[in-house]
TrEMBL record:
Gene3D superfamilies: 1.10.520.10, Peroxidase, domain 2. This is Peroxidase. Transmembrane segments: none annotated. InterPro entries: Haem_peroxidase, Haem_peroxidase_sf, Peroxidase_pln, Secretory_peroxidase. The keyword Zinc-finger does not apply. It comes from Salix suchowensis. Its cofactor is Ca(2+); heme b. Binds 2 calcium ions per subunit. Binds 1 heme b (iron(II)-protoporphyrin IX) group per subunit. It comes from the Eukaryota. Removal of H(2)O(2), oxidation of toxic reductants, biosynthesis and degradation of lignin, suberization, auxin catabolism, response to environmental stresses such as wounding, pathogen attack and oxidative stress. It is found in: Secreted. Residues 1-24 form the signal peptide.
């Protein structure tokens, strides 16, 4: 065999090997796919849906929690259920940071995990349970059904130390909020739609008293101020007393486009709500969503999908936690 033929043969063998390796890696790591558990735990998504419905019947506010979890977990570096890890002697839990104030109902996620584990032990990740319970919670609140991919694996460490870098605060400028979301691939209409989640649930007085005391923010609708002052009578609320204002007094339990009409009417509770309705970059989308619930749902579904696919652990990365609150013990 001549030198040239040898070289061609070597190149062909090499490319065959690299193709084989690529295939092998792909088989190990198909990334996120629709219906990832169809062979390993075909009932997984139905069990999660059933549990979300049962829990919602018993405790209506669980659905808000499921929805918030997607944002608080996936926006911080990776959609890997790091949010659910308890504090250890060495590390603080994300759940215990200031940015997670008001997050609750984590114990019910453990109930969903237990139900899935009874059917298929050690197969379905907490990260997928977190995302799918969020999706089903959105439906419980009257929102759209969003087809989401699965195949996430669970992270092993809390990301509490970097939360401030990733999760925008409700008092930050709209420019900062837009930048944080853009880094996840979520554009301006996507951000405007995600904030439509403020159409349900409540805002704790701690988060909004700076707009009422020492003097009332003149940007607030005077009709709404009266109600806010009645609900938040103290300039320094007792954080243990659960004092709050409903985000949307008209349809507080329904995910709908009422939020956009409220903020255009200067009834947004948080500074970010007010900015969304007044900033020239976001206002056109606010007006469009106030007019069309279909448009809001379309953009909301797109943004939730992008958020749920933010830098997941797949293939052999991470692990499948046995319990969502603790990383597996490695002997």
């Amino acid at each position: 065999m001549g030198a040239k033929a040898l070289l061609v043969f070597a190149l062909l063998s090499f490319s065959a090997v690299s193709v084989r390796q690529a295939f092998a890696e792909n088989e190990e790591d198909p990334g996120l796919v629709m219906n990832f558990y169809k062979d390993t735990c075909p009932q997984a998504e139905d069990i999660i849906k059933e549990q979300v419905k049962l829990l919602y019947k018993r405790h209506k506010n669980t659905a808000f929690s499921w929805l918030r979890n997607i944002f608080h977990d996936c926006a911080v570096q990776s959609c890997d259920a790091s949010l659910l890890l308890d504090s250890t002697r060495r590390t603080l839990s994300e759940k215990e940071t200031d940015r997670s104030f008001g997050l609750r109902n984590f114990r019910y996620l453990d109930e969903i995990k237990e139900a899935v584990e009874r059917e298929c032990p050690g197969v379905v990740s907490c990260a997928d349970i977190l995302v799918l319970s969020g999706r089903d919670g959105i439906v419980a609140l009257g929102g759209p059904h969003i087809p989401l991919k699965t195949g996430r694996r669970d992270g092993r460490k809390s990301r509490a130390d970097v939360i401030e870098e990733y999760l925008p605060d409700h008092n930050e400028s709209i420019s900062v909020v837009l930048d944080r979301f853009a880094s996840m691939g979520i554009d301006t209409p996507g951000l405007v739609a995600l904030l439509g989640a403020h159409s349900v649930g409540r805002t704790h007085c701690v988060k909004l008293v700076h707009r009422l005391y020492p003097e009332v923010d003149p940007a607030l609708n005077p009709d709404h101020v009266e109600h806010m002052l009645y609900k938040c009578p103290d300039a320094i609320p007792d954080p243990k007393a659960v004092q709050y204002v409903r985000n949307d007094r008209g349809t507080p339990m329904v995910l709908d486009n009422n939020y956009y009409r409220n903020i255009l009417d200067n009834k947004g509770l948080l500074l970010v709500d007010h900015q969304l309705a007044t900033d020239k970059r976001t206002k056109p989308y606010v007006k469009k969503m106030a007019k069309s619930q279909d448009y809001f749902f379309k953009e909301f579904s797109r943004a939730i999908t992008l958020l749920s696919e933010n830098n997941p652990l797949t293939g052999t990365k991470g692990e499948i936690r046995k319990q969502c609150t603790v990383a597996n013990k490695h002997h």
